Amino acid sequence: RKEVEQDPGPFNVPEGATVAFNCTYSNSASQSFFWYRQDCRKEPKLLMSVYSSGNEDGRFTAQLNRASQYISLLIRDSKLSDSATYLCVVNEDSGGSNYKLTFGKGTLLTVNP
Amino acid sequence: DTGVSQNPRHKITKRGQNVTFRCDPISEHNRLYWYRQTLGQGPEFLTYFQNEAQLEKSRLLSDRFSAERPKGSFSTLEIQRTEQGDSAMYLCASSLGSWNTEAFFGQGTRLTVV
Questions:
Q1: Is the pLDDT confidence value at B98 over 60?
Q2: Which residues are CB-contacts of A82 (< 8 A; sequence separation ≥ 6)?
Q3: What percent of chain A has pLDDT over 70?
Q4: Minimum Cα–Cα distance from B99: chain A residue
Q5: Contact assessment for residue B46 and residue B67, using Cβ atoms and an 8 Å cutoff
Q6: Most exposed residue of A3, A90, B70, B91, measured as fewest CB within 10 angstroms of its CB?
């Protein structure tokens, strides 16, 4: 089983739609979770951090379910500028309190006019 | 610019040659990561450092790959005897290293092996 698994996508949605991405992780010792956004041929950039049960930032809501080892990202009222690849990232304990960031494969979102 | 800096941005090399990439992290960051990314895939972990100590190296990384961070500041990633399968984007990231801090990425070095 892969350490971090995401919806394979791609997602094609019209402007204004609500879209949700799912992510599961295998290491129960994982402590913190992030969603990164990556535009084509650019580096990943932090979108949101998810530390407890979840958090909200404008149109974006991230949720965490530790019991099910599941993270989600919800985008409401999607904009053309939301088109990008969304990466689920888990900060997992690799032993001795050494934490490393492990990425999912990413989910490509295209928002259409 | 106080972000993560990577050099060169692009590298084209012939198969069998050695290449070296450099990463300068954000100055106060003690954790430094190297990732490799190919088209349509997420970043794949290669190795990471806490200050000058290399904490983990991916078992996917062959002996042709080596990384150093001699003074706990900048890092280099060397690939010896390059193969066409090494063609990818090599990304460096740095963070403060605690469990709840995010990593910041450089713009990457795109390697093409011909």
A1: yes
A2: A75, A109, A111
A3: 94
A4: A99
A5: yes
A6: B70
B12-46 pLDDT, tens per residue? 999 999 999 999 999 989 999 999 999 888 999 99
How close does chain A come to B82, measured CA to CA in Å?
22
Q: What pLDDT score was predicted for residue B1?
A: 54
A12 in Cβ contact with A75 (< 8 Å): no
List Cβ neighbours of B21 (8 Å cut-off, separation of 6 or more): B6, B7, B8, B11, B76, B77, B78, B90, B92, B109, B111
Per-residue tokens: A11: 């997602």
* A2–B contact, CB cutoff 8 A: no
Residue B33, chain A, CB below 8 Å: the answer is yes
Nearest CA in chain A to B55: A98
Is it the case that residue A96 has pLDDT exceeding 80?
A: no
Contact A105 B42 (CB under 8 A): yes
* pLDDT, tens digit, 9 for 90 and up, residues A55-82: 899 999 999 999 999 999 999 999 999 9
What integer pLDDT is reported at residue A1 of this predicted model?
60
